[in-house]
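Example record for the data management plan.
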Amino acid sequence: SPWMRFATTYTLEKSDVLVADCQTVANEAASYGFPLEQMVRFPWGVDLAHFSPENAAGPGLALKKSLGWEDQFVLFCNRTWSKPHGVMVLAEAFAVASQKCADLRLLLAGDGLQSEQVRRILAPVEEVTHFPGWVDNEDLPRYYGAGDLFVSPSHYDGSSISLLEALACGRPALVSDIPSNREWVIPGQVGDWFTDGDVASLETKMLSLASDPNLSAYGEHARELAEARADWDVNFQKLLFAYELAAR
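Corresponding structural encoding:
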C-alpha cells in the first residue's frame, strides 16, 4: 500500500544498518535505495543441540504411537493460523489428499485468527487430524520428530524459524515457493516446493512425497544444511557485527 511504502522508505532513510534475515529482504531493501554495504545478513538460527535428530526421532515415534499413528505418514505444521501463513491452504489440501491416501495424517499445532475456518475445513477428516494447540520450545523437537514431513504454506516470510528448527531436527520440508523459502529448500535435496496458495499443487506434492523413497536422505541433508547455515552460535556473531557497524 502507499502507506507501507512511505513507512518503509522513511524507516530505511533513518537507519544506519539494516539487519536482513534473508537475501529476499536485502534485495527488497536495495530496491528502495538502501546501500548494500550497510546491510548485514542475519538468518537467525537455532540451538542445534536442542533441535536435533536425537531429540526428535525417538520422542517423535513415541508421540506417533500415542496417537495410534506409528504406521501412518504424518504431516506436521506449526505455523500461526492467520492469513500470511497460509494454514487454510494446507487444511484444504489435506482434506482432499487424505481422501486419496488412507495413511495420511495431519498434526497441526498452534492456533490463530483463522481457527474457526481451519477447523471447519478439517471437520470432515477430523479422525485423521490432531490439534495439540501451542507447543512450547522444550517440547517442539518431539513434535518435529513425529512428523514425517514438515509443511510451511506461508504466503510471506523471511527465514522461517520453524523451518530452520525442522531442518535441524532432520525433517524433510515441503514449503510454498516464495523467494525466502527457496533460499533454504532445494527440491530433490531437502524436500520440495509447491505453488504458493495453490491447493491442488500442495495436495499433489503431499501425495508425491508421502511415497518418495528418498525421504530419509532428504532428512539427512536437512540436518547438514542446518549445521552449515542455521547455527545460532555462529550466526549470532553476525548480529554483533551489525551493532559494531552501526556504532562506527
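Summary line stored alongside the record: The mean pLDDT is 96.
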